[in-house]
Amino acid sequence: MYPFLSFIFGTIIGSFCNVVVYRLHAGDSPARGRSYCPHCKHTLSSADLVPVLSFIALRGKCRYCRKPISWQYPLVETAMGLIALLVVRQFGLSIVSFVGIVLGAFLFIMFVYDQKYQLILDRISVPAMAVALLFSLLLHRSFLSILLGGILGAGLFFAQYVLSKGRWIGGGDIRLGGVLGLALGWPLTAVALVIAYLSGAAAALVLILSRKSSMSSMIPFGTFLSLATFITVLWGNGILQWYLHGGFFDWVVNTLLRSYNP
Ligand SMILES: [Zn+2]
Questions:
Q1: Which of 20, 47, 80, 221 has the greatest count of CB atoms below 10 A from its CB?
Q2: pTM value?
């Protein structure tokens, strides 16, 4: 029952994430006013706003003007449902889970927004830092751990920003690095940064090999940072143990040995 309810709760948060992304880009207030169709501006009724189900019932078209509704809406709602499900599975029915889901929503908004518009907004990243700090405090991370994480997360991108005079990364990446560090503390911040760089490099390689992107075109790094933060929030300790206590090296050696022993 709880997995199902957490999923439903997540889809509702996801529906709100869609509204926030749309309204921030349109320059509207994210919290005020009724939702409307972006094509015909018709105010949407509550029957049009049920996460995922409305999209299916309306077959992906606006009830009033029949113009297509973006796939982003049900995708974000479903993904946020899964995010909530995973957080509750990890931290149980607790205040930690609630704050974790809110943190997940902030990260997910930055993920979607950076993907769509190549921008990380202060209006999201600054409150996200406060949520990240609260999350770490609830998990009883030490003050020193949180401080080191924050310095490493924000400092790494600040250094790159200064070195490249703002050409490699934007100021938003510095603040997102701060969110990452405050949410994870030391040493998990290092784990998340490694995941972000590895996944970013892998995606860049795929894009270059498929000739979809030249070296010069920008891949928004914020999408990898927010994804890596969330993965590490959920499984960081396991990944760290696996890496530190020989599991990683055993796995490499055993895999190599097995490949010579048919
Ligand atoms: Zn419409």
A1: 80
A2: 0.86
